[in-house]
């Protein structure tokens, strides 16, 4: 069994302005990030699909104790993408002082951010991120 869509291909897609996911050929469940098998019906026939790059914030938190590579506190949110999957990433176009309950339900667009190589990585890191609309 091989991956129809690799993590590397997802990252390359993000950098090219596309959000690539997978859709089950049997039950039409949609996935991001990629996986080998449908978790709903266990079908292995998944096809690559370009997903809409928009969604809605479902919940968030302010991360004040951050990992290496981050230099200040940030807002981490869970977003329900318009095509179905839920994903997690940073909100990159506002500061933590704007983190209040009114963020829940706000529309966002999918973006990405890059981080330089550190002692835990093997090169540049790319992470899913969001911008408020």
Short description, anyone?
With 133 residues, this protein is mainly beta. 7% of the residues lie in helices and 41% in strands.
Write the layout of secondary structure elements.
Blueprint: H1 7-15, E1 19-24, E2 30-31, E3 46-51, E4 54-63, E5 74-81, E6 86-91, E7 107-115, E8 125-132
Explain how this protein is built.
- The chain has 133 residues and is mostly beta strands.
- It has two domains: 7-51; 54-132, OB fold (Dihydrolipoamide Acetyltransferase, E2P).
- It contains one helix and eight strands, in the order H-E-E-E-E-E-E-E-E.
- The chain has one helix spanning 7-15, and strands at 19-24, 30-31, 46-51, 54-63, 74-81, 86-91, 107-115, 125-132.
- It has a five-stranded mixed beta barrel. A three-stranded antiparallel beta sheet has the order 2-1-3.
- Strand 1 and strand 2 form a beta hairpin.
- β-strand amount: 35-45%
Tally of helical segments: 1
How many β-strand stretches?
8
Helix content: under 10%
* Cα-to-Cα separation, first versus last residue: 39 Å
């Amino acid at each position: 069994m091989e991956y129809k869509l690799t993590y590397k291909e997802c990252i390359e897609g993000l950098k090219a302005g596309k959000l690539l996911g997978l859709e089950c050929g049997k039950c039409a469940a949609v996935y991001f990030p990629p996986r080998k098998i449908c978790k709903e019906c266990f079908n292995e026939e998944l096809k690559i699909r370009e997903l809409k790059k928009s969604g809605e914030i479902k919940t968030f938190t302010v991360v004040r104790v951050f990992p290496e590579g981050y230099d200040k506190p940030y807002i981490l949110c869970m977003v329900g993408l318009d095509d179905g999957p839920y994903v997690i990433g940073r909100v990159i176009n506002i500061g933590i002082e704007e983190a209040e309950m009114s963020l829940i339900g706000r529309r966002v667009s999918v973006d990405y951010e890059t981080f330089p190589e550190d002692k835990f990585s093997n090169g540049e890191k790319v992470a899913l991120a969001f911008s408020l609309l």
